[in-house]
Design a protein that fits this description.
The protein is α+β, with helices and mostly antiparallel strands. Among the domains are: 69 residues, no CATH class; 279 residues, no CATH class. Helix content is 58%, strand content 10%. It contains 21 helices and twelve strands. The strands form four sheets. Strands 1, 2, 6, 7 and 8 form a five-stranded antiparallel β-sheet that branches. It has a three-stranded antiparallel β-sheet with strand order 3-5-4. A hairpin with a 2-residue loop joins strand 9 and strand 10. Helix 3 packs antiparallel against helix 8, helix 12 packs antiparallel against helix 21 and helix 17 packs antiparallel against helix 18. The protein is extended.
Length: 621
C-alpha cells in the first residue's frame, strides 16, 4: 500500500473523491445551486439536451456565445461607413440578444441584396434613364424597341443603314444599341437582351435604399458592442441553469419521486472544504469514498504552465482513464521537438513567436497564443541546429559567430545525412520510452508476474538499443557486447515465449509468443521508419524556401536599386508566407501522428477517460 500512495502523489492525474447524495426532490434545485457556488463537483449528468427546457437553455447559451464572438470582432473605425452611423441615443436596449438575432440575419440579407443591386445597376447604367411607360405606349402602337449588346469586333456599323438602329454606348470593347421596328416579321442577326425591368435611376434608388438600411443595421449592431458584458453574463447564467437542469434530469429518483440521489466527483484536495459544506446543508445526506477506476471518475490533469499548453492535444485523442498514465508531459516535449524539426527554420521560428504575441491581443485566440509562441521558440532553436534562416544555409555565413556554428549539425553520419540519422535516433528513443512506460504501468495495473511478457519485450528492445548505443561509442568490447546481447535475448525469450501468461502451461505460451513476435518485428520496423518524415518535412520546407529565395534573387539583376527590389520583396514575403503556412500544417499533423499512433500504440495508452467538468457559475471552469 505505501508504494501505491507514493505513486499517487506523483501522478499527473488528480486524485478524486466520490460523493453520493440523498435528499428530498424539492430540495434538488437549491442543492444544485449550492454545488454551483462550490464550483468543483462534477455531477453525473446527461451531456445533451433531454427535454424542451434544456434545449431552450442550450440554444440561449449558444446564441449568446455567437453574439459575443461576432460583436467582439467588430471595429467601427475599420468600416468605411462609420461616419454615417447615427450617433443619437435611443436609450437602453432591453433585450440585446433579441435585437442581435433580429439584426444579424437582416444585415447578411441586405449585403446579399446590395451585391445583387450593384450588378443590376451596372447592367442598367449604360441604358441611362428612360421612361418605361413610354416604351409600353410605343409597343401598344406597334413600335417595338429591342436591346442589344455585342463585342465591338462583332458589331457592324452598316446595320444602321438597314435598320432603325441607335447606338447607346461604346466602351471600346462592347457596343450597346437599340432598334425600333413595326414589322411583325422583324429579324436581326443578333440575339437580343431582355428588356430592362426599369431604368438606371430606379436601380440607383433601390441600391441607395438598401445601403441606407444596411447603415442603420450597422449602427444598431455597433451600439450592441456596449452590451457585450451583459451578453456574457446572460451566457454564464444560461449555462449554469443548463448544468443544474441536466444534473437534475440525470439524477436517480427514489421513494416514489420524493427522494433524489446524485453521484458526483471532486478533487481529493478539496475534500475537507466540501465535507464541511455538505454537513452544513440541511436535508442532505451524503457518503464519500475514494474514487476507483470502476466508478469511471472524471479526469482532471495536473501539470505546470508548460504541459498545460499541450493538454488540448491530449484531449484531441482522449484523456487517460483513472488508472492510466498522463501522456501530456511526454507529448509536450516530443510534439514540440517534432514540430520544430518539421519546420526546421530559424526565421519561421521568429515569425511564429511574433504571431503568438499578436494572438495574445485577440479575444478568441489568446488561449492558444502561448502554445504558438512556445512552438516558435522551439523552431528557432532547432532551426539553428539545422542551420536554416528563411531558406538560407547559415552554416557558412560569415556573420554567424563560430560558437553558434558549433551547435549546427552538418555533414554525414555513417554515409547518411546527419539530420536523417538524428531523426531515426530520436524515433528509437521515443519508441523505447513508450515500451518502458508500457511495462511500468502494466506492472502497476496487473502486477509484475502478469507483466513478464511486456517486460520481456521492453528488455529486448530497450536493452538492445542501450547496449548497441554504448557499444558504438567503444566503451564495450565486441566480446562483452556479444555476451550481454545473448543474456538479454535469453531473458527476453523466457518472458515472451514461456511466461507471458503465468496462469497456463508455459509451452502453450510459445504459439502466442511467435505471433506477437511477427507482429512486433514487422510493425516496429515501420514505426521506426515513420520518423523519417521529420527529416523529409524539414528538408522539403527548406528546399521550397530556398526556391523562393532564388526566384526572388533573379528579379534584382545587378543589384542596383530599382523596381527589381520591389519584386524581390513581394516574391520573398508572399513565397515564405505560403511556405510557412504549408510547413505549419505538416508540422502539426505529422508530429500528432507520431505521438498518437507510434507512441500511444507501443505504450499501450488507450485514452478512454472523460473530462472533468464541474458544475459551476464561473466561466471557463
Amino acid at each position: 500500500m505505501p508504494p501505491k500512495k507514493k505513486w499517487r502523489k506523483r501522478a499527473m492525474i488528480e486524485k478524486m473523491t466520490k460523493y453520493s447524495f440523498v435528499l428530498l426532490s424539492g430540495d434538488a434545485p437549491a442543492f444544485l445551486k449550492n454545488l454551483e457556488e462550490l464550483g468543483v463537483v462534477d455531477i453525473s449528468r446527461s451531456e445533451k439536451p433531454v427535454d424542451g427546457i434544456s434545449s431552450a437553455l442550450s440554444a440561449e447559451t449558444e446564441a449568446c456565445h455567437k453574439a459575443v464572438a461576432y460583436l467582439t470582432t467588430l471595429k467601427p473605425e475599420n468600416d468605411s461607413d462609420h461616419t454615417k452611423f447615427s450617433t443619437s441615443d435611443d436609450g437602453v436596449i432591453d433585450d440585446p440578444l433579441a435585437l442581435f438575432q433580429e439584426i444579424y440575419p437582416k444585415e447578411k440579407r441586405l449585403k446579399d441584396e446590395i451585391a445583387a443591386a450593384q450588378k443590376v445597376l451596372e447592367d442598367r447604367r449604360v441604358w441611362g434613364a428612360f421612361d418605361k411607360k413610354a416604351l409600353e405606349d410605343l409597343e401598344e402602337k406597334g413600335l417595338k424597341i429591342r436591346f442589344y449588346r455585342l463585342p465591338k469586333k462583332s458589331y457592324d456599323p452598316s446595320w444602321a443603314n438597314e435598320y432603325a438602329l441607335t447606338e447607346i454606348a461604346d466602351d471600346g470593347k462592347h457596343v450597346w444599341f437599340v432598334t425600333v421596328s413595326d414589322d411583325p416579321s422583324y429579324s436581326f442577326p443578333v440575339e437580343e437582351l431582355p428588356v430592362p425591368e426599369d431604368d438606371f435611376t430606379a436601380a440607383q434608388n433601390t441600391l441607395e435604399d438598401k445601403e441606407g438600411e444596411l447603415i442603420a443595421c450597422k449602427g444598431l449592431m455597433y451600439s450592441l458592442k456596449d452590451y457585450i458584458p451583459v451578453l456574457r453574463e446572460r451566457e454564464n447564467e444560461a449555462m449554469a441553469k443548463l448544468q443544474r437542469h441536466l444534473a437534475d434530469a440525470g439524477a436517480g429518483k427514489a421513494a416514489e419521486g420524493y427522494l433524489t440521489t446524485f453521484e458526483g466527483f471532486a478533487p481529493a484536495e478539496d475534500e475537507k472544504r466540501l465535507t464541511k459544506a455538505f454537513e452544513d446543508m440541511d436535508g442532505v445526506y451524503f457518503v464519500k469514498s475514494e474514487a476507483v477506476k470502476e466508478d469511471n471518475p472524471p479526469i482532471k490533469l495536473k501539470g505546470n504552465r508548460f504541459t498545460r499548453m499541450f493538454s488540448v492535444l491530449t484531449d484531441m485523442y482522449g484523456r487517460p482513464e483513472y488508472n492510466e498514465f498522463d501522456p501530456t508531459p511526454y507529448l509536450s516535449i516530443f510534439f514540440l521537438l517534432f514540430f520544430a524539426m518539421c519546420m526546421g527554420d530559424t526565421g519561421y521560428g521568429l515569425a511564429l513567436i511574433v504571431i503568438g504575441l499578436f494572438l495574445r491581443r485577440s479575444e478568441g485566440m489568446k488561449d492558444i497564443a502561448p502554445l504558438v509562441s512556445t512552438l516558435g521558440v522551439g523552431t528557432f532553436l532547432i532551426g539553428i541546429v539545422m542551420h536554416t534562416f528563411f531558406g538560407y544555409d547559415i552554416s557558412a555565413a560569415a556573420w554567424v559567430p563560430d560558437w553558434l556554428k558549433k551547435c549546427m549539425v552538418t555533414g554525414n553520419i555513417a554515409g547518411f545525412d546527419a539530420n536523417m540519422v538524428i531523426s531515426i535516433i530520436i524515433g528509437i528513443v521515443h519508441l523505447s520510452l513508450a515500451f518502458i512506460l508500457k511495462a511500468i504501468y502494466s506492472t502497476k495495473k496487473n502486477g509484475f508476474l502478469n507483466s513478464l511478457g511486456t517486460w520481456g519485450w521492453t528488455l529486448l528492445i530497450v536493452g538492445g538499443v542501450a547496449v548497441g548505443g554504448i557499444s558504438l561509442t567503444g566503451a564495450l568490447s565486441s566480446t562483452v557486447t556479444k555476451w550481454i546481447i545473448i543474456g538479454i535475448g535469453i531473458l527476453s525469450a523466457i518472458g515472451i515465449f514461456l511466461l507471458s501468461d503465468v496462469h497456463r502451461n508455459p509451452l502453450k505460451n510459445i504459439g502466442p509468443g511467435l505471433w506477437e513476435t511477427y507482429n512486433t518485428a514487422t510493425g516496429l520496423l515501420g514505426d521506426v521508419l515513420s520518423y523519417l518524415r521529420l527529416y523529409a518535412l524539414g528538408l522539403a520546407g527548406g528546399m521550397l524556401g530556398k526556391a523562393f529565395n532564388d526566384i526572388a534573387a533573379m528579379t534584382v539583376g545587378d543589384g542596383s536599386f530599382g523596381p527589381g527590389w520591389i519584386a524581390f520583396a513581394v516574391i520573398f514575403l508572399v513565397g515564405h508566407a505560403l511556405n510557412l503556412a504549408m510547413c505549419c500544417l505538416g508540422a502539426f499533423v505529422h508530429p500528432l501522428r507520431l505521438n498518437f499512433l507510434e507512441f500511444f500504440k507501443n505504450s499501450g495508452y488507450e485514452g478512454k477517460g472523460r473530462i472533468y467538468r464541474p458544475i459551476t457559475n464561473k466561466q471557463n471552469q
